[in-house]
Fold:
Amino acid sequence: MQRTHSTKLWITLAAALVCGAAVIAQQAAPMPGAAGPATQPARGARGGRGRGAGAAANFPDASTLPKEWIDADTGHRVFRLSPENGSESAYFHYNEFSLDKQKLIFTAPAGICAVNLKTHEVETVVPGQRGLMETGLKTNEVFYTTGGAVWAADINTHVARKVVDLPAGSGGVSCVNCDETLFAGTISGNAAIDPTGATTRPAPRPAPNQLAEMFPGKTMDQLTPAQQSAVTKEQGLSSRVANPTPMALFTINAKTGERKVFGYAYAWLNHLQFSPTDPTALMFCHEGTWHENDRIWTIHTDGTGLKLMHARTMPMEIAGHEWWGPDGKMIWFDLQTPRSQVFWIAGVNFQTGETVKYHIEQNWWGIHFQVSNDGKMFASDGGDPGQVAFAPDGQWINLFRVQGDGTLTREKLVNMSKQNYVTGNGGLEPNVQFSPDDKYVIFRANMLGPTHVFAVEVAKAAP
Structure:
């Protein structure tokens, strides 16, 4: 394992229908058009629509889709956990499990639902469309927003309660801290201007030429369509980074409704995540072009202790899609040195600044990564050739095992060749998570056409 020790961190600056009870069949069901019960769809064209399109009339009825199969390319058993087309698990860094670790929360057109990870029974917790936040780490409740307020519903009894009204103009909240006393979000515009005057607007500057930065010496017509699309995307992001608007962080007290604004900046703030163990520690990012941003930051909820958790060390280096490890000690992230060329799963200790890097190959990369609860494994959700890694064979759910010498071994879990990853074109990013017992990797996918929630066994299926 490659380790570097940092002595200094630079402190600057994601029903009633039919969510109803359903039991996933215990025998493997054949894929549509497949020859037998243990067959996975052949690699080929993607089957994609995207989020919000899962219940569209041109999709097959969910009852006709397979509930279980063994992936013919990997030997791992895959389960479809959601009974309703258009269902999705949460963004990869949000807690989505019940307090007893038995149930997984997900959203469906019919409402917020829970699936028992052992029996595969599905129940509706909150009927109707709601703004799902995440599940609590102190109570057995799922938090969501509706009607200008934060609500919580018990995952077992389904009894809902209003937690707190959101102050007018407070912006949306996106996460809850580990003792469930604070919610956090971002605001922008005049409300985000530092009243002390200490945070000043930077001078306007032209957006850097992303073609020249990403592909020096080349013209657009010399690039592949995927590369051209990447340049166009980054140019748009860079324009916002070059001339940022004011943004700030805020918390809402769960008992009093008091809003506290802090972390004023002229930057694009996003990706808020509370520590799973420290109720006062909040991680956030400077969004935009990753190779132009020092992205990963932490701050205390009283506005003190601003820390940059990883400073870029070379041109075109990127670090992003960060997340807290389950122990609250490590912050993990996707690291590329430089972008699209050398790939790592990297981590930094929140308290000590000690860093860890695990090298991975181009085709092992994923849009998102996650670490197991025991810290011995990682997973990635893969990506098509148009993603930042430009991986020619990257459409897999992957499992990585940490070896004694500090390297990773890779095992393919699910063939994702029919997944549409392109979110701007009706696609969906799978967003892997480990189940609490580390026996499954949970993800969402449109590989069958409509979006659904899936689980794949970490252990290979018996012959």
